[in-house]
Amino acid sequence: MATLVKAERLVKEFRVKSAILSPKKIVHAVDDVSFEIAEGEVLGLAGESGSGKSTTGRLLLRLIEPTSGRVEYRGTDVTAFGSEELRRLRQKIQIVFQDPVSSLSPRMSVGQAIGHPLEIHRLGAKESRKETVLSIMEKVGLSPAEYIYRKYPHQLSGGQSQRVVLARALVTRPDFVVADEPIAMADVSVRALILRLMQDLKAEFGLTYLFITHDLATAKYLCDRVAIMYLGRIVELASRDELFSKPHHPYAKALLAAVPIPDPRVRKPKNLPTGEIPSAIDPPGGCHFHPRCPHAMKVCSEGRPPLREVAPGHVSACYLD
Ligand SMILES: Nc1ncnc2c1ncn2[C@@H]1O[C@H](COP(=O)(O)OP(=O)(O)O)[C@@H](O)[C@H]1O
Ligand SMILES: [Mg+2]
Fold first, then answer.
1. CATH (one of 3.60.40.10, 3.40.50.300, 3.30.1490.20, 3.40.50.1000) for 3-316
2. Between the N and C ends of the chain, which has fewer C-beta atoms within 10 Å?
3. Given this model, what pLDDT does residue 184 score?
């Protein structure tokens, strides 16, 4: 399959002031991240909070500018795109955020919210827009569409709100969707429904996803390949089956061991290293994970372990065999 999106050595640093009078500090939110996403693929980006997943997603969509590195879309470098080129690109690449309530304006009806991107991108004739909106509403399971069209966000259930957000992202017929923890805020009862819907929509519209999650169980359900991030770096990337059956990096192993097991009689191993995830302001030298790693060796605190192939298509940034 052809490569749709390519991240090449992306770096994003934020300058923050941690205390009055103290000099500004640098947050290494994304630290030299590269990957490719093939057309039609779902790449998962997993890791604990603060590991740089959302920042990576925003960089791909050029919602923020990289400190260095570049993003390619269908082989074209979009890093230098001007505003008109970006506007056109944004029809084709969309984002779905985790909190549907805060991503919907309380003053816009469902119909207005979903139709809004059509207006911004001046897509279709004005008269045909309502039809387009109603049709996408049916596709995401908002029915009866005519009835929900006139509703306002406060009148919707959590599941319906997330469907509106999905409809709004899909109404411009994008190729690529960054889904940033799309079910994290949803009730447990609607999570599986939304995941299944995302899978159906992918098939129907031929979508490619970057699926961001802190929860590996959902990555297992939806993703073809999974990248594990830790403090701004990808530490492991493999096909889903390979990652779940043969994780290599101690951090990936720890995360997998922490995935809740539905059967309460099975005791879950408790080897997720305890302690706060260190800060991206002053990350530990060498392998960022070494202070929490049960196998840390001297070399692990010295240099950044490179991502190396441990099996075909399976890379890990760990020196262990
Ligand atoms: N606009 C910002 N200004 C300063 N720091 C930020 C900003 N956005 C994110 N960060 C920091 O960058 C790091 C990565 O954040 P983020 O990408 O949101 O991680 P994740 O999505 O994996 O939880 C965190 O330490 C976060 O506090
Ligand atoms: Mg995030």
1. 3.40.50.300
2. C
3. 83
pLDDT score for 201: 94
State pLDDT tens for residues 197-255.
Answer: 999 999 999 999 999 999 898 899 999 999 999 999 999 999 999 999 999 999 999 99
Ligand 2 centroid from CA 234, angstroms: 15
- Kindly list the strands in the beta sheet with 42-46, ordered across the sheet, starting from the edge strand earlier in the chain: 93-96, 176-180, 208-213, 42-46, 225-230, 233-239, 314-316, 308-311
Q: Give the Å distance between the CA of 69 and the centre of ligand 1.
A: 18
The answer to whether the CB of 52 is under 6 A from ligand 1 is: yes
Ligand 1 contact, 29 CB (< 6 A): yes
Among candidates 224, 231, 206, which has minimal Cα distance to 287? 231
What distance in angstroms lies between residue 102's CA and the mean position of ligand 1's atoms? 18
Q: What is the pTM of this model?
A: 0.92
